[in-house]
């Protein structure tokens, strides 16, 4: 690997971490859209900042642009407060206006500004290593690395200091307020960090990748854990993984790095969405099927318990009486047999002692409306699940 | 002997988007009562509590807790929000939610330690939820979630407790467990204010009641003011509930 390659991957990874941290809280606050709004509406801030500072990497420009991000949030909330439109509509109203102001400013001054809309939206990670930071003549590395590195250090510091405040105000803003942790301060703090990160990252990776890096890793992590700290760690790992694998994908396909990283983020989410152990689609569908079969099993056992008449319990007539198709009757019968709930003698089905006990308990729970308990019972009784 | 006033509300008006939902409320809550706030849906019960707790900014009026503004008395007050007001899919455990009750006394930045954890475990024990301490909160039943909220308030070790519909969606045994804890709090000299919907149980559970519907209709001892007249004024329709039996 060349030095430039290592630097690019390092920058991409740091951006990924810096985005994953505020991103986790944005996802939990159901504010994914706001990061999209911020990433677009900082454009006029960047352009105006550039007129003033003539340097895309100046800290002043970052602060000015971040301020535009905060203004976006304030405007969105103001419009929303009027009660005339919903939040998503308010977002849709605000950021295109700010973004287009930025576009017009660029177009009007295209000649003397080396800035174009494509670069803002997509960035160009491949060029990041060329813009070096020189301190008294010594090359200390790419400027983007220093910018995003500083932002990351601040973000981690704030996260450690205010983790409990962020957690309580995200989970229960009312409680946070009553305890004296102003949800407004935390909200705008989070918005500031998100804005600064977006601005600091956009030059290297572009606005679209910033949004993807904020939302996708956190949304993926959310599917895998029920612990906030772990969710943060997973988000960070997914971000880094996508950054590095995306870089190599781009290298291999000779494609845009930002585009490839976004693709990796999407693939990662899709994989987890399908295969996550609890919240994944396949697990959910499997559980539904299992539940359906097991409800039928209980129905079947109840039928056996209620009918002593041998005709009702004859293997060949079962499907007529209980009105099930052959395949279904067979599945259920097999499941009951495997679990030792029934025995079949002379083609007559009877409950075993275990089956009888299970059924009696199940009825009890059903009539006392404690259906949830049946799930625990299944764990005790079943050798094989449906 | 004159009773101390725990919470005093004067001329309180609260509005959402400039539309008042509470009009000119005056309310005195004496120390040591177990008080129900009753009123129809949308009457402003939750709004009243949120305003007292400084969660909402009123457009007029003032509130004091033991004679001082709420901001100075935070440590004296605990709050159980309406259950639906939080996201139960939030990635956290029962124990962690109860620990949040200790955050107020910790203040900014300081993190909870062993002492806070011990207090949270004790509170979980009191509401019978110790076995569930490591459960993710979405995997708790509605009644269990309510008990977790109650434990979180208990851990605050306050003098005044505000509870927004703690009996919402709980079964009979949980309701009894909760009311016993509330009665124990009153016995210990605490003031407990509960938004309550089941009018039948008001005389049995509470000794003080406030009728609210945008305006304050009445407030006082249950035995004096809990009658058909006030119920009718509060609920609009001609309210006849045989509460005496
Ligand atoms: N965030 C809000 N924005 C606008 N209006 C609101 C908001 N919250 C509540 N309201 C309105 O204020 C009024 C009072 O609401 P509040 O939640 O205090 O009623 P409540 O008495 O607690 O009702 P419930 O018994 O249903 O809990 C209602 O008309 C409601 O529609
Ligand atoms: Mg309410």
Automatic annotation (TrEMBL), chain A:
Localized where?
Cell membrane
List the membrane topology term(s): Multi-pass membrane protein
Instruction: Using the UniProt record, give the first listed, main subcellular location.
Output: membrane
Q: Kindly list the residue ranges recorded as spanning the membrane.
A: 6-28, 37-54, 60-78, 90-107, 144-163, 170-190, 202-224, 231-250, 256-276
Q: Would the keyword Cell wall biogenesis/degradation turn up in this protein's UniProt record?
A: no
User: What keywords would UniProt list here?
Assistant: Cell membrane, Membrane, Transmembrane, Transmembrane helix, Transport
Q: Does the keyword Kinase apply?
A: no
**Alphabetical list of InterPro entries matching this protein:** ABC_BtuC-like, ABC_TroCD
Which domain of life, per UniProt? Bacteria
Tell me its family: Belongs to the ABC-3 integral membrane protein family.
The name this protein goes by in its record: Metal ABC transporter permease
The source organism is Flaviramulus multivorans
UniProtKB/TrEMBL annotation, chain B:
- Check the record and name the InterPro entries matching this protein: AAA+_ATPase, ABC_transporter-like_ATP-bd, ABC_transporter-like_CS, Metal_Ion_Import_ABC, P-loop_NTPase
Q: Which SUPFAM superfamilies match?
A: P-loop containing nucleoside triphosphate hydrolases
GO molecular function terms here? ATP binding
Top-level taxon in the UniProt lineage: Bacteria
How is this protein named in the record?
Metal ABC transporter ATP-binding protein
Which terms are listed as keywords in the entry?
A: ATP-binding, Nucleotide-binding, Transport
Query: What protein family does this chain belong to?
Result: Belongs to the ABC transporter superfamily.
At the highest ranks, the source species' classification is: Bacteria, Pseudomonadati, Bacteroidota, Flavobacteriia, Flavobacteriales
List residues of the ABC transporter domain: 7-239
